[in-house]
Amino acid sequence: MTRYSALALIAFCAAALVPAAHAQQAPRVVSSADAPKAIGPYSQAIRAGQVLYLSGQIPIDPKSGELMKDAPIEAQTKLVLDNLKAVLAADGMTMANIVSTTVYMKDLNDFAKMNEVYGGYFPANPPARATVQVARLPRDVAVEIGAIAVKP
Predict the structure, then answer these.
(1) Residue 113 burial (CB < 10 Å; 0-12/13-18/19+)?
(2) Are the C-beta atoms of residues 68 and 77 closer than 8 Å to each other?
(3) In a 10 Å sphere around its CB, with 0-12 CB exposed, 13-18 middle and 19+ buried, how is residue 69 labelled?
(4) Which of 14, 58, 68, 88 is the most exposed place for a label (fewest CB within 10 A)?
(5) Which superkingdom heads the taxonomic lineage of this protein's source (predicted)?
(6) Order of all β-strands in the sheet with 51-57
(7) Distance between CA atoms of residues 107 and 73, nearest Å
(8) Number of folded domains in the chain?
(9) Of 97, 106, 100, 92, which is closest to residue 144 (Cα–Cα)?
C-alpha cells in the first residue's frame, strides 16, 4: 500500500466515524418571548453550527414593550444585557457562552458607567469586545449591544 493510499484510507475511516449529530446543519432562527420582538426584517438570533449570532438589543422592556430611552445609561445597559441573556437562554446558553460583543454608544462619556454594569454580567473570562460611539441608534437610545456566542 502506498503512502497516499494509506492516508486516503485513514481519512475515509475517520469520516465514517463522525456521528451524524456533528454534521453541518442549516442555520436556524432562535427567538425568545422574554426578549423584545424584532422591530424590523431581522431575527433575534441565528444559530449556525455551534455559533449563535445575536442581533443588537436595545433597551426595550419585553413585557410592556416600553422603550427606556430616557433612563440612565446604567438602566439601559442592564436591560439590554438582560434581553441578550433571554435570547441566549432560548438556545440553552448563558452569558458565559458569549465570545464577542459589539457595544454601540450614543456618548462615550458614559463608557465608565456602562462598563461597570457590563462587567457584572461577565465576572470571569469576559468576551472580546469592540465599543464605538455612533451618531444615532435606533429609537434614539443610548446603547445597543450585539453578541456572538459559541456552544461547545
Answers:
(1) middle
(2) no
(3) middle
(4) 14
(5) Bacteria
(6) 28-30, 45-48, 51-57, 143-150, 98-105, 128-133
(7) 10
(8) 1
(9) 106
Torsion angle, CA of 22/27/31/37, rounded to 10 degrees? 170
pTM of the model: 0.83
Q: Which cell numbers hold the place of 124?
A: 470571569
Q: What is the pLDDT of residues 25-57, one digit of tens each?
A: 899 999 999 999 988 899 999 999 999 999 999
Q: Which three cell numbers stand for residue 18?
A: 463522525
Whether 53 maps to a domain, the answer reads yes
Structural domain contains residue 50: yes
In a domain, residue 3? The reply is no
Q: Is the pLDDT of residue 133 over 70?
A: yes
Domain range holding 59? 28-150
Look up the CATH number of the domain holding residue 34. Answer: 3.30.1330.40
64-90 average pLDDT score: 97
